Amino acid sequence: MMIHLGRMYAVMHGRSNADEEIEAVKQNIRIVGRLGIPVVEYNFTPLRASEGYGRTTGRGGTGLRNYDHERTQGNPPLQNVGEHTREEMWLRLEFFLKQVIPVAEDAGVRLALHPNDPPIPIFRGAAQPVRTIADQKRLIETFDSPSNGITLDTGVTTEMGEDAAEAIRYFGSRDRINHVHFRNVRVDVPYYKYLEVMHDEGDCDMLGCMKAFAEVGYKHLIIPDHTPEFSDDTVGSQMGWAFAIGYLHALRHAAEA
Q1: Which stretches of the chain drop beneath a pLDDT of 70?
Q2: Which of 95, 159, 228, 256 shows its CA 20 to 30 Å from the CA of 187?
């Protein structure tokens, strides 16, 4: 089981009410702990580069999403967001961790930070602080605790040009994977240009990832994020989710065989 924390713009943007927002986060974590929810996922993205996404068609007429950083070039900072350097973002993230991780430990809750996606360096003047494997390693080293972990996204890891299975072994062997997004992409330019494809046809070795999860004894939630869009599907993409979940279960059985 997992719940999402929601956006923390006061903290991420360095606003005057950041301390008040952190206190609200602490209270939410305590409530989550009392409810017996083991994992809270969150993002630390001052502004997501959503303008770089486009649409295309995949096999069988499925709707797929692609990303090209060139689409965002020249876009100025937004007045309600402002400009934020990488150094500023890391100072805020480290302060946030030092405030909330002890509370999460006491509550028996694990936090899972999703890496910045798209994993570009900066968008409209806002730096993305956790966009590489090295950044994720820095995160778990900042406050050494099982409550300070990551969402291991196989798609984002592949977008970075990295081996997702090796990333699973690194973070999983340290018990720092607290949530998983299980998806695939085909990469043209690491970090900057890629296509989100059906789970069985991208650059990520999905079976290798599932075997790596088994090797490290991963025991938390896996969701097949970013499912393909089939024609005549329901509003909730039930056909897409059925395909993705069925493929995930097949890989799990193959990895356990």
Answers
A1: none
A2: 256
